[in-house]
Amino acid sequence: MELITEHPILGADCFKRGETVEFTFDGAGMKGYAGQPIAMALHANGVQIYRVTPEMGRPRGFFCAIGKCSSCFMVVDGVPNVRTCITPLEAGMKVETQHGKGRMALLPEKEV
Ligand code: FES
């Protein structure tokens, strides 16, 4: 999947990109541009499912893409519930599919 590089209305400044960086998604190596939203980097790598709902186990991906819903929640560097549509990509990030409500990696699991 490729990103658009020009648009008849938007100016060239909209398409400036950071340096190419490497990150992982569920353990698989991927590349993106530093500073672009994590979700956009995943989308460009063919990833469309970012989390699985807690109650029904349904897959979710982009919805609003402006940080106003919770559809793109993922676990980033061990932190759950990160809105990946508005979080800039950095080199070496460890991005994971979020299953359910998410759990902090450093906190002990709580029995319910
Ligand atoms: S897609 Fe809605 S907050 Fe990210």
Features:
6% helix, binds FE2/S2 (inorganic) cluster, 112 residues, 1 helix, mainly beta
Describe this structure as you would to a colleague:
This protein has 112 residues and is mainly beta. Helices cover 6% and strands 27% of the residues. It has one helix and eight strands. The chain has one helix at residues 38-44; strands at 20-25, 28-33, 51-52, 59-60, 73-76, 79-83, 94-96, 98-99. The protein has a five-stranded mixed sheet with strand order 2-1-7-5-6, covered by helices on one side. The chain has a three-stranded mixed sheet with strand order 4-3-8, with no helix packed on it. The radius of gyration is 15 Å and the shape is globular. Bound molecules: FE2/S2 (inorganic) cluster.
Structural class: mainly beta
Tell me what portion of residues adopts beta-strand conformation.
Answer: 25-35%
Calculate the terminal CA-CA distance, rounded to whole Å.
42 Å
Strand arrangement across the biggest beta sheet: 2-1-7-5-6
Q: Helix count, per DSSP?
A: 1
Helix fraction by DSSP (H/I, runs of at least 4): under 10%
- Mean residue pLDDT: 91
Q: Give me the strand/helix succession.
A: EEHEEEEEE
Say which molecules are bound, naming each kind only once.
Answer: FE2/S2 (inorganic) cluster
Unreliably modeled segments: none
Gyration radius over CA: 15 Å
Largest sheet: 5 strands, mixed
Tertiary shape: globular
Q: Based on DSSP secondary structure assignment, what is the total number of beta strands?
A: 8
